[in-house]
Fold this sequence. Notes:
Layout: E1 3-8, H1 11-19, E2 24-27, H2 40-50, E3 56-59, H3 67-79, E4 84-88, H4 95-103, E5 110-116, H5 125-132, E6 136-140, H6 149-152, H7 155-167, E7 171-174, H8 183-187, E8 193-196, H9 212-227, E9 257-259, E10 266-268, E11 280-292, E12 305-316, H10 332-343, H11 351-363, E13 368-377, E14 385-392
Parallel strand pairs: 1-2, 1-8, 2-3, 3-4, 4-5, 5-6, 6-7, 7-8
Antiparallel strand pairs: 9-10, 11-12, 12-13, 13-14
Helix pairs in contact: 1-2, 3-4, 4-5, 9-10, 10-11
Pfam family, one: FolB
GO cellular component, one term: cytoplasm
GO molecular function, one term: dihydroneopterin aldolase activity
Amino acid sequence: MTHFLASVRNAAEAERVxxxxxxxxDLKEPDEGALGAxxxxxxxxxxxxxxxxxxxxxxxxxxxMNPAAVAEAVAATAELGVDTVKLGIxxxxxxxGCFDALRSLSAPADxxxxxxxxxxSDVDPTEAAKASGACGVMLDxxxxxxxxxxxxxxxxxxGRFVDRARQAELQVGLAGSLRAHHVLxxxxxxxxxxxxxxxxxxxxxxxxxxxxxxxxxxxxxxxxGRTAPEARFEARPTSAVCSISxxxxxxxxxxxxxxxxxxxxxxxxxxxGERHRRALDRIFVHDYVLEVEIGVHHNEKGxxxxxxxxxxxxxxxxxxxxxxxxxRTLDYDYxxxxxxxxxxxxxxxxxxxxxxxxxxxxxxxPRAERVEVMIEKLDxxxxxxxxxxxxxxxxx
Length: 396
């Protein structure tokens, strides 16, 4: 499960993010840089306020890679009683000397190394973690005015970072001027932590005070994207089935299909031709019905109506990388959870808007190449009405 990390500068902000559902309270001073450190007295005050309700992490400041200074700062911050100490890694200086010094520490806190997507470095994160004894690695951005994490790395590159950390049995976190629209695409990569500061603040400015509504919205998005709470929605008996089928280059259509004996849901295989010069597989969710607040007419306001979702996603075919591990594929829960997160935002006027949001969620997954979305309103006379759209990765 991905945990929601919220960065705060004092005890009052800590209470605010806890109320918004933060899983980890991260202590840093945004006015002092990307990983600006708060004063020891602030750390103690925050620890008293939080009182063990959630784990607490703290940064040590934007330090030069001087082994003695780094080891001293990490040890001093750990001794204050935080659960995790975060250290930003720079290429200049003596990073490997720092790792040697850190490994010899017996600090009472875990260590997480932070790497900056917008600052070139030849330091390998997993090797650095091994050398320093760190339990985790994290991506962030150093220049908060130079764009978000996804402006400096593609989702594929971020996904590879996550995969390498997992293979090394490290915890892995993602941060870096992230906003609400980053939540679902990054949750699809299944990091252990996703971190926010600016998105939680008034006017989206990391140095401003926290905005309770913004904090609550990020908390809701993370919770909806990772758990897809069921209480808000009624799932009809025609539910969802996932099927993966190998596509043979140069051959179109024509897979076998049958109807499930229990609920009428379509299941089977789908075969299609060569796209983007490589074989594709297809994952689908068909005939999935939810109650949705949708429509422009007066009699559609304040009520729900049945909406049927059918989604087909063409994905890059590489079965050798799956290793029978669901975390390495695009599973149908990603589609279902995304739909539920989208409609949890409140009333939607147009079916076209809903279809576009679903398509953009699906195509944002690193393995997705093309998506077809059909959405039907089932309670309109004389039968189903709706829209079908097709989107591909090149268009996004």
